[in-house]
Amino acid sequence: MIDFHTHILPCIDDGSGSIGESLSLLRLEARQGVDTVVLTPHFYAGQVRPTQFLENRQRAWQQLKPYLWPELPRLYLGAEVQYFEGICDAAELPRLRIEGTELLLLEMPFSLWSNRVVRDVLELQGRRDIQVVLAHIERYLSMQPKGVWQELREQGVWMQANVSFFRDWKTRRRAMGMLSRGQLQFLGSDCHNTKNRRPNWDDLPEKAWAMAQSAEACCALTEAPACFGKSCL
Fold first, then answer.
1. Helix-strand-coil split of the chain, %, nearest 5
2. Per residue in 86-113, pLDDT tens?
3. What is the pLDDT of residues 134-159, one digit of tens each?
């Protein structure tokens, strides 16, 4: 089981504030049945250059690494890349993909997307070295026309949803419908801390568990282990 979206890497963004908190989060993940965790700290192009972000990420990883043990989930380095103007021309964008894959987790603007923004996403998706995955898709659903979602799906853009999408009674039916129609490729906890944004896989309805675990492989990965791509979870 994969938690595709987390902020567990310590002291790099608004997620975990210490090595101890990161280890507590990883123990919670393991307790809830997660065996693979993707570490996706925020990347904001307006605040830091890609090279500096990667240095910061590596530093945080080296600080955490000595405290890991085999019983904890397998970890992959990645990033939650916030959309920015000129993203298609960013030479270092492939370095922000999830380790060992072509997957780029992309956080979109929380507003009505312009035609240019949609074109940029489709241009990225058209590249041979990038598979776009839109982060926490439920946050943008009501902001965009249905035609935008249809076009993105037809062009092969993948979607990631947070577990909270299935927990809220206002959105649960829509979440289940999207999962049953194969419109969600990945799920994530989007956990940030051990208090109000903890791993929440125990909130996922049993029916959603069953659907996701019986889903066909939703991605073709290059070097990642086969279990990484066997389920939307």
1. 40, 15, 45
2. 999 999 999 999 999 999 999 999 999 9
3. 999 999 999 999 999 999 999 999 99
What lies within 8 Å, CB to CB, of 63 at 6+ separation is 10, 11, 19
| pTM of the shown model | 0.92
Interatomic CA distance for residues 29 and 151, integer angstroms: 35
Alpha helices (H) in 65-157, listed in sequence order:
115-125, 146-154
Query: Which amino acid is it at 225?
Result: P
Tokens 């019986």 belong to residue:
214
- Helix H segments across 168-205? 172-180
CB atoms within 10 A of CB 222: 7
The tokens 């039916």 sit on which residue? Answer: 173
- Integer CA distances (angstroms), 179 to 54, 106, 133, 164, in order: 33, 20, 15, 14
